[in-house]
Specification:
elongated, 323 residues, 38% helix, Rossmann fold, alpha/beta, 5-stranded parallel sheet
Length: 323
Amino acid sequence: MSSRYRPVVVVTEPVHHSGMELLSQSCEVLLLSELSGQERTAALHRADSVIVRSTPFTEDMMDASPRLSVIGRHGAGIDNIDVEAARARGIAIVNTPRSNTDSVAEYVVTVALMLLKRIPEVSAALRSGAFPSGGGSLPGQVDRGGLNGRDASGMTLGLIGAGAIGSAVARRAMALGLVVKAFDPYIPQHDDFEIVPDLGELLECSDIVSLHVPGGGTNRHLIGAAEIARMRDGSMLINAARGDLVDDAALVAALESGHLAGAALDVFESEPPAPDAAIFSAPNLIVTPHMAAMTKESLQRMSMDVATGVLKALASALDTDAA
């Protein structure tokens, strides 16, 4: 990148210092969250690039950034960016689709095992005094209380979405002895597991269903009452992708009726959910605050990857302008 001009990169929220340091070597970097209202307006007006995490980046914000040539997304999805508006203005978008792959895959396998072994349920029972000292051995009380877990080996894991994260989940699951199948209309076949051509067929043959597709559009409430009804009695659902993929009311009803034995949600249609949200009253549900990708290693990778992508796009834009 030419030393005669230092592009201005506006970062809307703090990211790992490694990415900030990389950007600072050749760019003027402004952290929007540290600026006042007028300073924010001025920063966007000067921005050659904006890097966002979860902050929406709208058409109005693009209009307020006349020099903007690239938007960087610190994360895999770009649903918080008005993609059509960016394309209409010739603004490039770069994201980090593989930076959090291992982190999310590990999360999915972790909560699947926690559900199968009933860890939250039995831990709460133990803490509440449900196993009296005069009730015999703990294993015996677990058995008599109907709190036995399940083996993962031999079960079928159904993946909705067989991209990078879905495939990473599959590799870990198969190492535990699970049979993996997936539905993905964009991937007709996979070297490591079976691609099922119909979503309903996948739901009907799976003991655990895990979601790995974008949200929004036609995917909103991809898993609703009708889809949950097709899932096996006693099966489980995991969503660490996007909150609007699952109809919360239908999920709560299925957990309360016992049709689903358990579920894990890391994402919600409204984030954060209200403290009195119905989802929090559902039994056998693990809830976490959109943190599947929030590991030290993943955050550093995302920061470096988005910085590298933005620098490459800026260099390309500058070369084009020079030509």
